[in-house]
Amino acid sequence: MESATPHTPKPQVDHAPVITIDGPAGAGKGTIAALLATQLDWHLLDSGAIYRVAGLMTMRHALALDDEPAIMSLLKTLDVQFFQGKVFVNQEDISLAIRDPACSSVTSKIAALPAIRSALLARQRAFRRAPGLIADGRDMGTVVFPDATLKIFLTASPEVRGERRYKQLSEQGISANLAHLIKEIAARDKRDAERAAAPLRPADEAVYIDSSRLQPEQVLATINSQLSAANATRT
Ligand code: CDP
User: Fold this and answer.
1) Which of 31, 32, 47, 103 to mutate to test the pocket of ligand 1 (most atoms within 8 A of CB)?
2) Using a 6 Å cutoff on CB, does residue 138 contact ligand 1?
3) Would residue 86 count as lying in a domain?
4) What is the pLDDT of residues 167-186, one digit of tens each?
5) Which parts of 22-85 fold into alpha helices (H)?
6) What's the number of domains the chain is made of?
7) What percent helix, strand, coil does the chain show, rounded to 5?
8) CB of 25 closer than 6 angstroms to any ligand 1 atom
């Protein structure tokens, strides 16, 4: 899953500042991460998209979801590009396909495999470049960027998360059933939180935000005040 085109960040050690946004499915991480990246003019890492590519290709090749060696071999053959908010695998635009709920479910199963997680670690860290990075996922603050400047754990009630995801999928033209979606999200969150490798959990120092009754601008305002406080203690 490597690529050498100009669009993919090159692996390198960089100490640019990072803000991590972790949390369960449908909490609004992607929306907030994108708003924050635009506001600060920083880079953006949607780590879920990287896992989803692996999930989609595992499905397409009909691999057993616990066959770590086969999935690892498959990942090595993929040319993955992230470009202007879209995801390409071997030149095919798979941006919509990876959002399908069936892919979400498979993704969380293979994301529990330790070798897969280790293989994707360097690729995620390579997104860290000046002037800074907003990283969205499950283990951004705990495992991938433990030295982040600010760590956010964003959540919302299961009903609100289900409804947000339903609306998001409808807008993308992906059909879904709300009741099934709420169940799929609950099963996925349970799996993500209970796995041994990099489980979904807030970092010790994370700022916990429940966005159930908040508009994106209000979440952003909370993060901005935390960021000012974090920057003030550094200077
Ligand atoms: O958008 P949503 O929150 O529903 O999911 P996502 O962030 O695209 O992640 C899809 C799945 O990938 C999650 O349910 C996790 O199983 C896995 N994932 C992970 O294990 N670690 C990450 N850093 C990001 C995603």
Assistant:
1) 47
2) yes
3) yes
4) 999 999 998 999 999 999 99
5) 29-40, 47-60, 68-76
6) 1
7) 50, 15, 35
8) yes
